[in-house]
Specification:
The protein is mostly helical. It has 3 helices and no strands. The model is unreliable at 6-11 (pLDDT under 50).
Length: 130
């Protein structure tokens, strides 16, 4: 077993009782210690939410400005934004279909290999009979 010394938990430069006893103030300080703010999980989540909120505000402002802009570049941007959804869906379906066909192809090849293995075994049995 490990024995704990006062210095393991507290700053040894702090005033400790004459017999090395922890004072009430030292114990209170130890019990109320918290992680530094940047390393706390709550802080990280709050910071991410804060940045996301600002990003959303910026996106809303850009969307509002874009809705009023009827220049050729703005109209092209709107067109590509609108078309990106269906095109992404379509290409995703192609990828899913390709993956399904790959799985089916693998299953078919394994079945064919199984049949070939059985045929070879049958031929070997037939050749040993004669």
């Amino acid at each position: 077993k490990r024995s704990w010394a006062v210095g393991d938990f507290l700053d040894t430069s702090a005033a400790v009782g004459a017999k090395g006893q922890i004072t009430h103030d030292d114990a209170a300080h130890f019990l109320t210690m918290r992680p530094h703010r940047p390393t706390a999980y709550n802080y990280t989540v709050e910071e991410a939410a804060h940045h996301a909120h600002h990003a959303l505000d910026e996106q809303k402002a850009i969307k509002k400005a874009l809705a009023k802009d009827h220049s050729l570049i703005a109209e092209e941007a709107k067109f590509f934004s609108i078309m990106s959804g269906p095109v992404t869906f379509l290409t995703s379906m192609f990828a899913i279909t390709a993956a399904y066909l790959e799985v089916q192809n693998g299953w078919m090849l394994s079945q064919k290999a199984k049949m070939m293995k059985e045929d070879i075994a049958d031929r070997d049995r037939m050749s040993h009979r004669h």
